Amino acid sequence: MSMKFPIERFRKAATPLYYYDMELLQQTLDKIKGSVSRYGFNVHYAMKANANPAILRRISEAGFGADTVSGGEIAAAINAGFKAEDIVFAGVGKTDGEILQCGAADDTKVHAVEGAVICRTAFPYWIPDNDSGALPYAL
C-alpha cells in the first residue's frame, strides 16, 4: 500500500484539519475483504471510530457492515448506504426510542447485552452463544 501525504496543501489550510486518503482507505478495505473472504466472515465497521459520511459511504460500498451503539449511528449508517441487515446495534443502556428505531429499520440486528432490553422489544433478537449461559436466539 502506498500513501501520498500532500504536505504543501496543508500549509495553506486552516486548522483543525482532517485528512483522509481515500485511495489508501480503498486499498485497506480491499486487503481486509480479500483476507476474510476465504473464511466467510462478515466485517462490521465501528461507527464510533469515524462518522464522516464520505468514509462511511466508501466502507458501505465495499460491502462491510456497520457496528452501531446509538440511534444516531443507526441513522448515519442507513444514510451512508449500509443495508439494514448489515447493521449491528449493541451496547448497554438503550432507550426505548433507539430500540424502536432498530425495529423500524427492518432487518437491523440487535445484540442483546442486558436482559432488560429483551423485555422491551417486539422483534427478533440475536443473543450470543457464549460462556454466560445465554441462549443462541430469543424471539
In words, what does this structure look like?
- This protein has 139 residues and is α/β, with parallel strands linked by helices.
- It has six helices and six strands, in the order ααβαβαβαβαββ.
- The protein has helices spanning 7-11, 22-37, 53-61, 71-79, 96-104, 115-119, and strands at 44-46, 65-68, 87-89, 109-110, 125-126, 137-138.
- The strands form two sheets. It has a four-stranded parallel β-sheet, covered by helices on one side. Strands 5-6 form a two-stranded antiparallel ribbon.
- Helix 4 (71-79) links the parallel strand 2 and strand 3 (87-89).
- The protein is flat and about 50 Å long.
- The termini are far apart.
- Mean pLDDT is 76; it is low at 114-123, 125-129 and 133-139.
| Strand and helix order | HHEHEHEHEHEE
Distance between the termini: 45 Å
Low-confidence stretches: 114-123, 125-129, 133-139
Q: Assign an overall shape.
A: flat
The strand order across the widest sheet is 1-2-3-4
Helical stretch tally? 6
Give the C-alpha Rg.
18 Å
Largest sheet: 4 strands, parallel
The average pLDDT value, as a whole number, equals: 76
Helix amount: 25-40%
Number of strands: 6
Structural class: alpha/beta
Percent of sequence in beta strands: 5-15%
Secondary structure layout:
Layout: H1 7-11, H2 22-37, E1 44-46, H3 53-61, E2 65-68, H4 71-79, E3 87-89, H5 96-104, E4 109-110, H6 115-119, E5 125-126, E6 137-138
Parallel strand pairs: 1-2, 2-3, 3-4
Antiparallel strand pairs: 5-6
